[in-house]
Design goal:
0% strand; mainly alpha; 73% helix; single chain
Length: 411
């Protein structure tokens, strides 16, 4: 087997695992599959030590790590539990509670990273809704959908946006100006679709749902205040010439210096699996990009469509995000075409994020909600999500496409 054939075989095995979520007969998850693929390439001498270091985008990993520390501050002080409990225990109507969940989930995800937000909010949201006699499923779909749509607004809202921002050296505030409207359209599509699909059915089914609700964590207002200050400082640093990676790490370091929250407690809330997944995929996609296959395919598509525009990005992200996942897809595209202009990168960020709402497998946030809800005794099925996910995604795609057309983006 030639070296190129070996790289292609490893890449195909890894991305098949990304699509399936596992390798049949083994308990390897997506992180394990990506890591094993990177190790196979290194052991097979397809990549060397220097190649591995060159492939890994360390500023992206640093930003992700720092944002996880920031989100962990809010989780450790009980803010997410408090928010979810207040939402679920409100005496407002189901329609208003759904709106609160979507606005809260989307707003928090724009700044505090969507994966951590849904991880922290899902259990208490389930507990409060069950106590009120409401079916948690539409609200969980709303939380996941809002976390995806809301995170599209900022360059730090989700992992793929962080990566796109680093590759394109995108300014935080210009990114917000370009992507906030599509994100709001996405949030509106999430609310409207769920309300129509679940109207008159928000009450808990007679059979009920099993699971004992966890006790809410008390809110540590001092630590919450420190987290709010950290967010304000971070946004201020984004207005300065300080590099984003440096700004995020400075804020993370400030948060780790604490008399109330132990370092171990904060670091236990960091998603180390996601960081390993990123590092391993950097190696796998870089090795595959070196074969020239992806660049050739995208170049042909660009030639056929007079450049990489919305007409190519939207179906590519819709299909790719719901098969191999939005993070692996974005990595693959950026490895093949690292010199895309800012407008194209904005569109790639928005569409790859909104595409995650189509099916449960479309984003890590969706899968986190399903797993955390199951632990709380609530089963959210593929069909439950798809009934809302398909129309909300198509509507948000149409709205985002119209926005970028008005803004003058290439089609």
């Amino acid at each position: 087997m030639t070296m190129h054939a070996y790289v292609i075989a490893v890449f195909a095995a890894v991305y098949a695992g990304m699509a399936l979520g596992r390798w049949p007969g083994l308990r390897l998850d997506r992180t394990g599959i990506a890591l094993l693929g990177a190790l196979a390439l290194y052991a097979g001498t397809s990549v060397t030590g220097p190649d591995v270091l060159a492939a890994i985008d360390f500023p992206t990993l640093f930003i992700l790590f720092g944002l996880m520390i920031l989100s962990a501050q809010f989780a450790a002080c009980g803010f997410y539990d408090w928010t979810a409990q207040r939402l679920a225990s409100s005496d407002a109507s189901p329609a208003k509670i759904l709106g609160f969940v979507i606005l809260t989930g989307g707003g928090l995800s724009a700044i505090l990273a969507n994966d951590v937000v849904v991880f922290a909010m899902t259990p208490m949201l389930c507990a409060g809704l069950l106590r009120r006699g409401l079916d948690p499923r539409p609200y969980l779909i709303g939380l996941a959908g809002a976390a995806n749509a809301g995170s599209a607004a900022t360059v730090i809202g989700n992992p793929q946006n962080v990566l796109i921002g680093q590759v394109g050296d995108l300014d935080f505030w210009r990114f917000l100006a370009a992507c906030a409207v599509p994100a709001l359209i996405g949030l509106a599509a999430v609310y409207g679709t769920i309300w129509i699909a679940w109207r008159q059915r928000f009450a808990l089914p007679r059979a009920g749902v099993s699971g004992s609700p966890p006790a809410p964590q008390p809110l540590d207002r001092w630590s919450l205040g420190k987290g709010v200050v950290a967010v304000v400082v971070l946004l201020g640093l984004f207005l300065s010439p300080v590099a984003q990676a440096h700004a995020v790490l400075l804020v993370a370091g400030f948060l780790l210096v604490s008399r109330r929250l132990a370092t171990r407690q904060i670091l236990s809330l960091v998603d180390w699996h996601l960081l390993v997944l990123f590092a391993a995929l950097f190696v796998v996609t870089a090795a595959f990009a070196a074969t020239g296959i992806t660049a050739d395919l995208l170049a042909r598509a660009a030639d056929a469509g007079d450049g990489i525009g919305i007409a190519i990005i939207s179906p590519l992200t819709l299909a790719g995000s719901n098969t191999i996942g939005n993070v692996p897809l974005v990595m693959l595209v950026l490895q093949a075409m690292p010199h895309l202009d800012a407008d194209t990168l904005y569109a790639l960020a928005v569409f790859s994020t909104l595409a995650g709402n189509l099916f449960l497998v479309g984003s890590f946030a969706n899968l986190i909600v399903v797993e955390r809800a199951a632990a709380a005794g609530v089963k959210l099925s593929f069909a439950d999500h798809a009934r809302c996910g398909v129309p909300m995604t198509l509507l948000s795609f149409l709205g985002a496409g119209a926005w970028f057309w008005v803004a003058g983006a290439a089609f």
